[in-house]
Amino acid sequence: VRFVESGGGVVEPGGSLRLACVMSGHLAMFGAYDMGWYRQAPGKQRELVAYIDLADRTYYVDSVKGRFTITRDNAKDTIDLQMNDLKYEDTAVYHCNAVRVPPAGSPADSAPLYATWGQGTQVTVSS
User: Fold this and answer.
1) Pick from 65, 117, 58: which is nearest to 90 by CA?
2) What confidence score (pLDDT) does residue 28 get?
């Protein structure tokens, strides 16, 4: 499995970016995977920030609710992350991966499905 992320950059506080992720090499149809955007800031653990399941239900970590929107295009094997009103604390490397949610669990309890990660895309919020 391979993930390729793009769309990062340097933006001022309050600005917007749209990230894209393409998944390839998967065995099942893309639409069968729950997908997520993760980020890792310097000195911090990687965290799931946005999740979308095969029914297009979404989950967001509290810090990005109302500002970030995750979408998917099953015909193109892609997920996007629209990020608005960016804040300094959004600075991180953003990655995508399929997501494994435990039975009867929630996305907050999930883990990445694959050990493989793409190169990520750097988002820097700076004035």
Assistant:
1) 65
2) 85
